[in-house]
């Protein structure tokens, strides 16, 4: 079910320029909030009279009962993130079920590698917990970049995991605005840095998956560098973080011909018509027609609005979240898709 539930923020912890919300999951909703490590939650709140939706990754252990943690970093122009810094413990917040395709189901004897920068640590943290707690033999290597040591998020949690699991968990901190003793650990994750890391720290490690999360430019550099040293593209997974969605130009989402649209969600079909010249994505068109669909970032990043194109043709303007196998199977992002045929059928139930 694509339904928001009102959950209680049972406690709040402070982090460098961020907060951790611990959500209380009542027994009757536990099944709806089962998740795979790396997935996120979509939140909905009224902020200054406007409904805002944002997605934040679950960063806690799956071994904890009836509670989930999300970390929300304050962003200067982020309306929801600024609101989140001032919420009090005991408050209620509307939360959609877990979603997202940047995830890891760890296997025994596997080796995993992650590159994270800033708040990009949050989905990766869930993967680390899963790898170390749900297997006896799998190993995890984390390369984590920040500006200064005082900016490191989840530092205590990372240290505790290192103490508990020793050689199965390797963590390496990189800083951009604070001098360090070893030159390798100075600077951003760019093509040159990844080459050095691969040469001196990853040789002999046959990784079963590489996970990259952080700003878009960092992700592009790391993924390109990994492919350049011969890593199979299918083993490289990434998730981008945006504080506010980028806009699609009106001309790019102009519908060229009249179209009849059918939307299937939660077992029901909803139908509406679009007129040629309308400037709207499928998500925006559905909203105008009174059809409530799941979404969050509206930037092609979070995949909350993922659905399957059952019939017709669409143009997907941006895609930063769906993998190649998904697009080949007909999955699209409704927030980025524009009708390009006279009949469209999309389903959120597949």
Automatic annotation (TrEMBL):
<dbReference type="InterPro" id="IPR006058">
    <property type="entry name" value="2Fe2S_fd_BS"/>
</dbReference>
<dbReference type="InterPro" id="IPR017938">
    <property type="entry name" value="Riboflavin_synthase-like_b-brl"/>
</dbReference>
<keyword id="KW-0001">2Fe-2S</keyword>
<keyword id="KW-0274">FAD</keyword>
<dbReference type="InterPro" id="IPR001433">
    <property type="entry name" value="OxRdtase_FAD/NAD-bd"/>
</dbReference>
<dbReference type="GO" id="GO:0016491">
    <property type="term" value="F:oxidoreductase activity"/>
</dbReference>
<dbReference type="InterPro" id="IPR039261">
    <property type="entry name" value="FNR_nucleotide-bd"/>
</dbReference>
<dbReference type="InterPro" id="IPR001709">
    <property type="entry name" value="Flavoprot_Pyr_Nucl_cyt_Rdtase"/>
</dbReference>
<feature type="domain" description="2Fe-2S ferredoxin-type">
    <location>
        <begin position="259"/>
        <end position="350"/>
    </location>
</feature>
<dbReference type="Pfam" id="PF00175">
    <property type="entry name" value="NAD_binding_1"/>
</dbReference>
<dbReference type="InterPro" id="IPR012675">
    <property type="entry name" value="Beta-grasp_dom_sf"/>
</dbReference>
<dbReference type="InterPro" id="IPR008333">
    <property type="entry name" value="Cbr1-like_FAD-bd_dom"/>
</dbReference>
<feature type="domain" description="FAD-binding FR-type">
    <location>
        <begin position="1"/>
        <end position="105"/>
    </location>
</feature>
<dbReference type="GO" id="GO:0046872">
    <property type="term" value="F:metal ion binding"/>
</dbReference>
<dbReference type="Pfam" id="PF00970">
    <property type="entry name" value="FAD_binding_6"/>
</dbReference>
<dbReference type="InterPro" id="IPR036010">
    <property type="entry name" value="2Fe-2S_ferredoxin-like_sf"/>
</dbReference>
<keyword id="KW-0411">Iron-sulfur</keyword>
<dbReference type="InterPro" id="IPR017927">
    <property type="entry name" value="FAD-bd_FR_type"/>
</dbReference>
<keyword id="KW-0479">Metal-binding</keyword>
<dbReference type="InterPro" id="IPR001041">
    <property type="entry name" value="2Fe-2S_ferredoxin-type"/>
</dbReference>
<keyword id="KW-0285">Flavoprotein</keyword>
<keyword id="KW-0560">Oxidoreductase</keyword>
<dbReference type="InterPro" id="IPR050415">
    <property type="entry name" value="MRET"/>
</dbReference>
<dbReference type="Pfam" id="PF00111">
    <property type="entry name" value="Fer2"/>
</dbReference>
<protein>
    <submittedName>
        <fullName>Ring-1,2-phenylacetyl-CoA epoxidase subunit PaaE</fullName>
    </submittedName>
</protein>
<dbReference type="GO" id="GO:0050660">
    <property type="term" value="F:flavin adenine dinucleotide binding"/>
</dbReference>
<dbReference type="GO" id="GO:0051537">
    <property type="term" value="F:2 iron, 2 sulfur cluster binding"/>
</dbReference>
<keyword id="KW-0408">Iron</keyword>
């Amino acid at each position: 079910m694509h339904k928001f539930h009102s959950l209680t923020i049972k406690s709040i912890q402070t982090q460098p320029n961020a907060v951790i919300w611990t959500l209380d999951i009542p027994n009757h909703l536990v099944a709806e909030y089962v998740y795979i490590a790396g997935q996120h939650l979509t939140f909905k709140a009224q902020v200054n009279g406007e409904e805002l939706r944002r997605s934040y990754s679950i960063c806690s252990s799956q071994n904890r009962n009836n509670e989930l943690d999300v970390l929300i970093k304050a962003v200067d122009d982020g309306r929801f993130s600024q609101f989140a810094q001032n919420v009090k413990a005991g408050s209620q917040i509307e939360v959609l079920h877990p979603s997202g395709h940047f995830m890891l189901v760890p296997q025994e004897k596997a080796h995993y590698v992650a590159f994270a920068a800033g708040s990009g640590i949050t989905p990766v943290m869930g993967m680390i917990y899963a790898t170390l707690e749900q297997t006896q033999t799998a190993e995890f290597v984390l390369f984590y970049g920040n500006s200064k040591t005082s900016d490191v998020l989840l530092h205590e949690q990372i240290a505790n995991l290192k103490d508990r699991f020793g050689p199965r968990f390797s963590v390496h901190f990189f800083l951009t605005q604070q001098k360090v003793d070893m030159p390798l650990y100075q600077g951003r994750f760019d093509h040159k840095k990844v080459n050095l890391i691969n040469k001196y720290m990853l040789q002999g490690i046959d990784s079963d998956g590489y996970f990259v999360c952080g700003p878009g430019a960092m992700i592009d550099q790391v993924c390109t560098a990994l492919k350049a040293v011969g890593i199979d593209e299918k083993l490289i997974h990434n998730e981008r973080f945006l504080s506010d969605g980028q806009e699609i130009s009106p001309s790019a989402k102009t519908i060229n011909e009249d179209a009849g649209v059918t939307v299937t969600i939660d077992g029901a079909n909803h139908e509406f018509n679009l007129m040629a010249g309308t400037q709207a994505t499928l998500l925006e068109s559905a909203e105008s027609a009174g059809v409530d669909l799941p979404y969050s970032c509206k930037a092609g990043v979070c995949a909350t609005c993922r659905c399957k194109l059952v019939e017709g043709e669409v143009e997907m303007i941006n895609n930063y979240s769906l993998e190649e196998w998904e697009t080949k199977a007909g999955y699209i992002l409704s927030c980025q898709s524009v009708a390009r045929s006279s009949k469209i059928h999309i389903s959120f139930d597949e």
